[in-house]
Amino acid sequence: MTIPRSHNVRVEGRTVGVYEYGDPDGSPVFVFHGTPACGVGFAWADGPARERGLRLIAPDRPGVGHSERRPDWTVAEYAAQVTALADALNIESLAVCGYSGGGPYAVACAALLAQHVTACAVCAGSGQVGVWAERDDFEKTDKQMLRLARTRPWMARLILGTMALVGRISPKTAVKSFASQLSESDRKVIPTLGTPHEQIALFTKAFTHGAHGVVADYAALAQPWGLTVESIRVPTTIFHGDDDPMVPLRHSEELAKRVPDAHLVVWPGEGHLGTVTHVGEVLDALKH
To answer: Who has the most CB within 10 Å: 47, 83, 105, 233?
Structure first.
């Protein structure tokens, strides 16, 4: 599995790094990466997206990967940036899909861009901290970063930057450390994602221009999103494994209770990487 290259799009005077997968002429789906990660992490969805005639567009969030920094943002505020990117790409109608820390951003688009969004999928999505989720719900590293991003961002940048350096120098060590946090089913998925260098690229490439953007992303997820999920009328499917050690299933259950007519799909025995195994099912939910 080769590491894809991004292309840069000028949006409101700033550069946004964008990765694309699937059918270049297909129906557009904006896919939002997890945290800490970047748009390079969806190569496993390329073939299934082509088969379904879908064009997957994965932007790096501000300051992440190849995207220029912006002042700190909230989850709700990011939806306007998605609109601007869609305009720059001459896209009027789109579906959205968010994985893990990208889940809240897909929800924001469904809530605030209803005139453009045809369908929404949330996969192992992080819950709304301060509403139905708490920092202590998350795995140890994410819990620490969610706290430090709001209280000591300089320390969060130092820790994450060091982790990224280790990942670049010794991908095997970084993958082994990451795997230790995952479920048994997740550890079986990792070898399917290429070499250790390819497996860890979604993390290391997030720090192309430093750690500021990744920490800003954590800061946005560490507070209420700034929107009302109960207002969503876009067809929404929420996917989650019941053996996820990174983001608890309860986060998706609570989101499903709040989004009108949302469909919750629970994958028995699957962990945080269940989306890779069930990618076809996820993409089918976005064909509206």
So the answer is: 105
Using the predicted structure, report yes or no on whether residue 288 has a pLDDT greater than 90. Answer: no
- Secondary structure letter of residue 97 according to DSSP: E
Q: Where do we find the tokens 């507070």?
A: 223
Q: Considering only CA atoms, which of 199, 150, 207, 192 is closest in space to residue 35?
A: 207
Nearest to 218 by CA among 280, 286, 151: 151
pLDDT digits (tens, 9 = 90+) for 272-285: 999 999 999 999 99
d(CA 143, CA 87): 35
By the 10 Å C-beta count (0-12 exposed, 13-18 middle, 19+ buried), 4 is classed as middle
Instruction: Count the Cβ atoms, other than its own, within 10 Å of residue 99.
Output: 30
pTM strictly above 0.90: yes
pLDDT > 70? residue 1: no
Domain ranges of the chain: 7-284
Q: Which residues, at least 6 apart from 286, have a Cβ–Cβ distance to it below 8 Å?
A: 29, 54, 95, 97, 119, 121
pLDDT tens digits for range 132-151: 999 999 999 999 999 999 99
- Supply 153's token pair: 């961002």
